[in-house]
Amino acid sequence: MSVEVSALASFYPLDKLRPECLEQLAREAISEDIGKGTVLFSAGDVDEQMIYLLSGEVRCEYPDGKIKTTDGSSLQGRYALGDLQPRRFTATVTSLSAQLIRLDRRYTEKVLIWDQLSRNPEFKHYDAEPGANRWIFRVLQNRALHKLPTGAVERMFQRLQEVYVVNGQCVLREGDEADYFYVIKEGRAAVSKQSGDGEAIVAYLLRGDTFGEDALLTKSVRNASVTMMSDGKLMRLSSKDFAEILTPPVVDWVSAGKASILVRQGAMTLDVRSLEEFEERAIKGALNIPLLDLRDRIDELDRGRKLIIYCNTGERSAAAAFILSKVGFDAVALQGGLAAMLKQLEKP
Fold first, then answer.
1. What is the pTM of this model?
2. Would you name the residues annotated as active-site residues?
3. What is the C-alpha separation between 29 and 50, in angstroms, rounded?
């Protein structure tokens, strides 16, 4: 069910946002009608949702037995319901029905921090023209940057540099050393790779899309070329800034012990080393897709399963986790690589 901008504007702290920010959140928000007796969350839960009560009544029961009631028509109803993590109480609908609005907490926080940053007269990336900031909202939505702390968002925007590009300009060339991470602010681009039949286009990029991170994560040369299909503007982040700001928080890591538990729960193990390395020694049951082939073979992966990715040291697996997170996979990288997992499997 769609959400009206006016509904979001009645909530705190969303009421202070610019209209374009509210419009963006309204596109992502989910509205639900919930019946009596539905448990919205339980004490101790950790989740990624902000829940606002548009109408109806919810009982808030604390572990110590204390009970409070929140009514959607009250002043208290203007605040997100029990928004501290872990949840401090169990929330149960007590009215015949209740209407809720759910927002992704991380994305909402990023929109809030960008709105605040852009109000500073010295902030250089805000454009008052209608639709001119769409690239920013797409960057903030990037699933690979989902876990980026709000402080890192501020540093990222402070370090981004704007560069002008023209139609036909080659921004990245396959085989070159990695120097920058890019975001398309305006324009379109094509991604191409060399093959036995020559150079072939493998993807197209639009405003808000990012590129150039693969080689930075793996500390290797570019694995594809990117050529502009129109005049435009790019925002870029140096390899040094990328390593400092983006790399640490955007890749989820798991220990070998945790990985073993996840595998028993149905997770898939993905080996992103070369075929030769895989054939020499690998984790039993793992699927091998070398990192350089990953984008071309994504359809071989099950989007419904969590992915545990490993290599020898962690660098290739971190790059793979970043790439797959961008396109919607639940992917984590294995700490310690193959050696750590084999040691774990040898335990009695």
1. 0.74
2. 311
3. 10
